[in-house]
C-alpha cells in the first residue's frame, strides 16, 4: 500500500552540496519527505526518511534568514527548510513531528484533535501565546511610531508587550513577563525593530528583550517596514505597504518576457490594494507589485504560451485596470479558490 500523502506545497530548501537555497515542491507522507525540482516532475530530486529523525523549530543558524526549521535524520544528516510565513511553517512542523511520533510508536498517522488544550501554568506554549498576541481585537496593537527621524510601521514597544502579558494573566509580574518576551524573541516570533532593541538582541548568546518604551519590536511576518524622511517618491512607494496582510504564500508566476514559470512568494494587502511578489530564496525586497484596485481575477484552464507538460491545473489570471495580464498557479484547487476569493475582496474594498 502506498504511503498516505499528508501535506504538499512549496518550501525553500538549502542545498547539501552548493549550500544555495532553492524553492522546491515538497511532499510529506507517512514515512518521509520527497522534494522535487518542479511540481510536475515524475521522480523526486531527493528523499528524507523521518524514522528516527529529530526536528528543530525555529532554527536560527542562518542569521537574518527567518522561518527556517531543521530536520536531522537518524543517520545524522541535516536538512534545512524555510517557509514563506509563520503559519505555514507551524503547519509543516506540526505534521512532521506527528509523523516522527507515529513512526517511533509504530502507529498509523492521524492528526490530533484541534480542540484547544488547557495551558498548564508551569508550561507555556509560545506558539499559542504568539497567536493570542496577534489577535486583532484582543492582542498587542500594532502602531506607527516615530523615532530618530524614522517612522516604524506595524510595531510596538517592549513595555507594551510586558504590560499586555501581565494584563492577560500570562505572567504574574514584570520579571516573569520579561522572561516570556525574551523567549518569544529567541524563538523568532518577535523581532527587534530599532537600534536599541537590536543591540539588546545581539548582546549575548541569548537575546535580551527590553522592557522600555523606546525599545521597538514587531511580529515576525507582520508587514513591518521602516521609512525615513526622504523624497516624495519614496513616501509614495511606501504607501503600497501600509495595508494589513490578508493572505500570503508561494505560487507559480509566469514571466512577462520569457514566459517561464518561477516560484514566487506573494503578500496580499488590503488598503491600499496591492499584491507584492518576492524571490522566496532571498531578502524582503519585492521583485514587483500588482495594483489590484478595479482588477478582475478568474480561474482559467490554460495559459497562452505555456507548454502543457510544464504547467497544468489550478491556474488563475489577474487582469489589472491597466489591462496587464498576470498568470499564476496555486498548489491545489482549494488554494486557488482561496486566493481568488481574497483578491476579489481586496480589489473591491481597497483603494
UniProtKB/TrEMBL annotation:
SMART domains attached to this UniProt entry: DEP, PH
GO biological process: actin cytoskeleton organization; intracellular signal transduction
PROSITE patterns the record matches: DEP, PH_DOMAIN
Cellular component GO terms, alphabetical: plasma membrane
Top-rank taxon, per record: Eukaryota
Presence of keyword Signal: no
UniProt KW keywords: Acetylation, Phosphoprotein, Repeat
Record domain DEP: where: 136-221
CDD domains: PH1_Pleckstrin_2 (cd13301), PH2_Pleckstrin_2 (cd13302)
InterPro entries linked to this entry: DEP_dom (IPR000591), PH-like_dom_sf (IPR011993), PH_domain (IPR001849), Pleckstrin (IPR037370), WH-like_DNA-bd_sf (IPR036388), WH_DNA-bd_sf (IPR036390)
Domain called PH: residue spans: 4-101, 244-348
Protein name: Pleckstrin
Naturally occurring in which organism (per UniProt): Eleginops maclovinus (Patagonian blennie)
